[in-house]
Automatic annotation (TrEMBL):
<protein>
    <submittedName>
        <fullName>WecB/TagA/CpsF family glycosyltransferase</fullName>
    </submittedName>
</protein>
<keyword id="KW-0328">Glycosyltransferase</keyword>
<dbReference type="GO" id="GO:0016758">
    <property type="term" value="F:hexosyltransferase activity"/>
</dbReference>
<keyword id="KW-0808">Transferase</keyword>
Amino acid sequence: PAQVQILNGRFDKLSADQTVEELMRAIRAGERGILSTVNVAILMMMRSNPRLQRFVDSSRWIVADGQPLVWASHLRQQPLPERVAGIDLIDQLCARAVQEGVGVYFLGAESSTVREAVNVLQDRHRGLDVRGYADGYFGPEQAEARARAVAESGAELLFVAMGVPRQEYFIEEQWDNLGARVVIGVGGSFDVIAG
Ligand code: UDP
């Protein structure tokens, strides 16, 4: 898709709805990819963190998670349609996952928090096929087992909420073990959903 360069970030010109449909299309087509949601704070972090910069640059989809980035795109005469926030994507994707029978996995936050977030989402999206969930507090020696658990669950869509850049490092290192088709780092979203 068409992209816009803003500072050290390259953003897809996708609305939230278009992003969701593109991800669902990829899942149906059996394709794999990482979606990065980038806000101004993450752009700044990328500047001083080459590993994070490379991760974002090599993501299959990159969306602008902040109104300032949308404004900046207008100044560049390359308007982004709208802000696309990770937390909104979770809800929209869960709704579409119910319709299409796509299995979902939630990894990150404290165990009581991720459990509550899953409860809330299953309440909001009746019939949501939650293949599994797990907290985000584990050492490097456990990372591979955590990733393989996702693959064994058969989940096609994975949300990782372990904060930036921890979640990006995990996704990068475990990409070959995760199985899931579409993987999205969603920062602190499970805390917000759990309330
Ligand atoms: N988190 C996690 N594993 C960790 C550290 C943090 O799963 O080792 C979770 C934390 O519970 C929270 C989210 O990551 O749900 C964001 O954490 P934090 O606020 O520390 O990061 P930031 O939002 O500042 O990136």
